[in-house]
């Protein structure tokens, strides 16, 4: 692939990944029940509302935004099709589905990794309720922290739960998600 083709492929992947990020944040914001008056939540909900109009008839399942989840899957599905077509292959359906699911979980783990890292760093400087974005990060990551803090107590007033969670996320990514993605790629590009 020449430079222009690689650049266009990378740009398309970036655009799809940013759109997927917004919709995943929408799903997480609804899941952790962030106040609708939060400006970050309002902005994400407003930016993601229009593309979901045609899927709004799909019912929510177990308090999950099923239309948004389906839309995220479809976005990632199309992204992977475009990536494989750009290298001159057309993927098989089963491999494409496995690859899409693995890639979505990989993106979710990466999102949590960075949210935890940013939240931990910012917690040293800014109180949680002082800015809306830090509040959103805290609300999204707090379920993981509360579970980890039950197992790992504070040691000398130092909270090691972010480090343990980050290590676990990397472990899950390496041992579980990467093989799923590799299986999907192998099946898709045979």
Protein described:
The protein has 190 residues and is mainly α. The chain has one domain (3-188). It is 74% helix and 0% strand. The chain has 6 helices and no strands. The longest helix has 31 residues, at 93-123. It starts with a helix and ends with a helix.
Distance between the termini: 20 Å
Mean pLDDT: 88
Number of helices: 6
Please state the overall shape, judged from the principal axes of the Cα atoms.
globular
What is the domain total for the residues? Answer: 1
Q: Based on DSSP secondary structure assignment, what is the total number of beta strands?
A: 0
Q: How helical, in percent, are the residues?
A: over 70%
Largest sheet: none
Tell me what portion of residues adopts beta-strand conformation.
under 5%
Low-confidence stretches: none
Q: H/E element string?
A: HHHHHH
Structural class: mainly alpha
Question: What Rg is obtained from the alpha carbons, in whole angstroms?
Answer: 19 Å
Fold topology:
Layout: H1 3-31, H2 39-49, H3 66-86, H4 93-123, H5 132-151, H6 161-188
Describe the structure in brief.
With 190 residues, this protein is mostly helical.
Name the descriptors.
190 residues, globular
């Amino acid at each position: 692939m020449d430079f222009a083709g690689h650049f266009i492929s990378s740009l398309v992947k970036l655009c799809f990944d940013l759109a997927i990020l917004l919709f995943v944040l929408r799903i997480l914001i609804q899941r952790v029940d962030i106040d609708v008056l939060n400006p970050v939540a309002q902005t994400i909900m407003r930016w993601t509302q229009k593309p979901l109009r045609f899927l709004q008839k799909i019912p929510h399942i177990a308090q999950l935004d099923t239309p948004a989840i389906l839309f995220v899957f479809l976005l990632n599905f199309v992204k992977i099709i475009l990536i494989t077509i750009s290298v001159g292959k057309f993927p098989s359906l089963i491999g494409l589905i496995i690859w899409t699911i693995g890639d979505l979980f990989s993106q979710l783990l990466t999102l949590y990794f960075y949210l935890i890292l940013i939240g931990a760093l910012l917690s040293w400087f800014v109180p949680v309720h002082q800015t809306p974005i830090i509040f959103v990060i805290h609300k999204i990551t707090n379920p993981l922290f509360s579970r980890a803090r039950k197992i790992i107590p504070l040691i000398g007033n130092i909270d090691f739960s972010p480090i343990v969670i980050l290590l676990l996320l990397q472990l899950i990514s390496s041992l579980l998600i990467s093989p799923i993605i590799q299986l999907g790629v192998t099946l898709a590009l045979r």
